[in-house]
Amino acid sequence: MAKLTHIDAEGSATMVDVSDKPESERTATAEAMVCMDPDTLDLLVAGGLPKGDVLSVARVAGILGAKKTSELIPLCHPLAITKISIDFERVSSGKLQVLSLCKVIGQTGVEMEALTAVSVAALTIYDMCKAVEREIRIENLMLRSKSGGKSGTWIRS
């Protein structure tokens, strides 16, 4: 079993020292599903919601979320992210998939940034749609893949 890297010998939380790790290109992708009534999703896609262009605002919010990850997750390193993309795909009549891709050249990975990006984008969609529907659900937040660093590439099966 792997040991937890954010716990020191005394059992206290600690930020991992990455100063001796070589820089490499690192990427991570994540996703979440926003589930709502099909009529609400129709309005969202058509731009007919009272708060405006939901997907554009959610995209910018997700990008900002990725950039602010180290301020939200206490033991994350601040990263100079080189790319963040947020995409949306309607996967059924009432489900919108939120996807993120984050890249960095650095000494630690961008998994938390990719996960934060989709979380913030999904929460923004909820916020902008809640006046029309309160039963919106955010489901299945997950890391899809990561690459780079000592552990190499991992892809969800």
The main β sheet shows up as:
5 strands, antiparallel
Number of DSSP helical runs: 4
CATH architecture of the domain at 38-146: 2-Layer Sandwich
Strand content: 25-35%
Read across the widest sheet, the strand sequence of neighbours is 2-3-1-4-5
**Beta strands, count:** 5
Uncertain ranges: none
Secondary-structure element sequence? EHHHEEHEE
Instruction: Give the mean pLDDT.
Output: 93
Can you say what the CATH homologous superfamily of the domain at 38-146 is? Molybdopterin cofactor biosynthesis C (MoaC) domain
- Roughly what percent helix? 25-40%
The Cα radius of gyration reads 17 Å
CATH class group of the domain at 38-146: Alpha Beta
Structural category is alpha+beta
Distance between the termini: 20 Å
Shape: elongated
Determine the CATH topology of the domain at 38-146: Alpha-Beta Plaits
